[in-house]
Amino acid sequence: MRIAYVLNTYPQPSHSFIRRELHALERQGFTVTRLAMRGPDMALVDPGDRAEAERTEYVLDRGMPALLGGLFGLALRRPALVLRSAARAWRMGARAGGLSGRLRHLVYLAEAAHVRARCATEDVRHIHAHFGTNAAAVAHLCHALGGPGYSFTVHGPEEFDAPRALSLGEKIAASRFTVGVSSFGRSQLCRWVDHADWPKIHVVHCGIEYSRFTDAIPTPENGPLRLVSIGRFVEQKGQMILIPAMQEICAKHPDTVLHLVGDGPLRPEIEAGIAAAGLSENIKLIGWLDEAAIRAELDAAHALLMPSFAEGLPMVVMEAMAAARPVIATYIAGTPELVRPGETGWLTPAGDPSALAAAACELAEMSHENRDALGQSARRRVLARHDVDTEAAKLAELIRAAQTP
User: Fold this and answer.
1) GO molecular function terms here (predicted)?
2) pTM for this structure?
3) 157 shares a domain with 106
């Protein structure tokens, strides 16, 4: 069975979970056409991401004149269908905000017409999109134009911040099914549709590849406390709060080292904050790394520090736990479904640097044996809940069931 993955920007260093899911579906027997609106907006350092970029078709590379020409060609053949779909796009754009939102959704309509044509050429039976934003809008409008049925995965937090502007309820109602990556995420989706549509909303976790984590090593036994935090440098990830947290940690354990892996628009602000706090020897900005280098960072650390203000269910938390590292995270969104205080790590109130610092100091003062016990418990829990092939099998069954009349 051939399906299409419709994506906005792909691949991205922070979206390796899409690649892993896609490959797992291919192992389930699907042939997957990759249709992204645009290419990555940053350098790809991981060989897997670079290979995906080679296999992906980029819709906007065709140019807007060609996309509009395709839409007008369809309008000549099916005027009533295109007119209804244009009216739908116009209404969705109005919710997104004024004239710019309306025009943006008409661009999505042109993209959708091209996706429809490609699906017809490739005999695609089903479309799956990731995120409830642009990609889901294109999948939704493609279906309105007579294209295949669709589903989409919602991660959060962006979708939860603006559900009406994203026409989230309309997209869910018209989908064959919709996926949340946690029970919390599913609950948020249920808020925006009639109760009759709740059964079409399912939980499929993001998954890890067990083969990448077969050789989990013990936490470092000697030396100062080593922490790692991984993610985009954006407001929702909360990295700025790590600066006052590290001031408190270093007051008790002055040799503590924190590696910030990632990059993003807040990098200049983070760099300035580190310098102003006099923590340049304690907090190091590492940049984006490939999967092997991220694994090396986790292996060298005693724990993952995740100070997020808003989340879905962070992939890096799963990867840290699979590497047998305890997690210090904030008590938000789907994270408490995975991280168990006293069993696999710590949960702290979001926005509280002192609570993060207290958890890190508790970790620093634990015996090596107790640190390892936490890490091994974390590993068992994530491998039982987030194996990528198990989760992809759930998604595959939903896709196959959606083809039944």
Assistant:
1) glycosyltransferase activity
2) 0.92
3) yes
Contacts of residue 339, defined as CB under 8 A and 6 or more positions apart, other chains included, come to 317, 321, 327, 329, 345, 346, 347, 378
Range of the domain at 337: 213-385
**Where do the DSSP E strands lie in 149-211?**
149-154, 177-180, 201-203
Answer yes or no: are the C-beta atoms of 389 and 20 closer than 8 Å. no
| Shared domain check, 170 and 142 | yes
The tens digit of pLDDT for each residue in 93-149 reads: 999 998 999 999 999 999 999 999 999 999 999 999 999 999 999 999 999 999 999
On whether both 187 and 293 belong to a single domain, the answer is: no
CB neighbour list of residue 24: distance below 8 Å, 6 or more residues apart: 207, 388, 389, 391, 392
> Does 227 share its domain with 278?
yes
Q: Say whether both 249 and 304 belong to one domain.
A: yes
* pLDDT exceeds 90 at position 172: yes
φ and ψ at residue 399, rounded to 5 degrees: -65, -45
Question: What are phi and psi for residue 366, nearest 5 degrees?
Answer: -80, 155
Q: Do both 137 and 261 map to the same domain?
A: no
Q: Above 70 in pLDDT, residue 332?
A: yes
Residue 405 has pLDDT above 70, yes or no: no
Which tokens hold the place of 356? 């993060």
pLDDT digits (tens, 9 = 90+) for 340-387: 999 999 999 999 999 999 999 999 999 999 999 999 999 999 999 999
Q: Identify the bridge partners of residue 305 per DSSP, sorted by sequence position.
A: 328
| CATH code, domain carrying 227 | 3.40.50.2000
Note whether 242 and 110 are same-domain residues: no
Residues 229 and 294 in one domain: yes
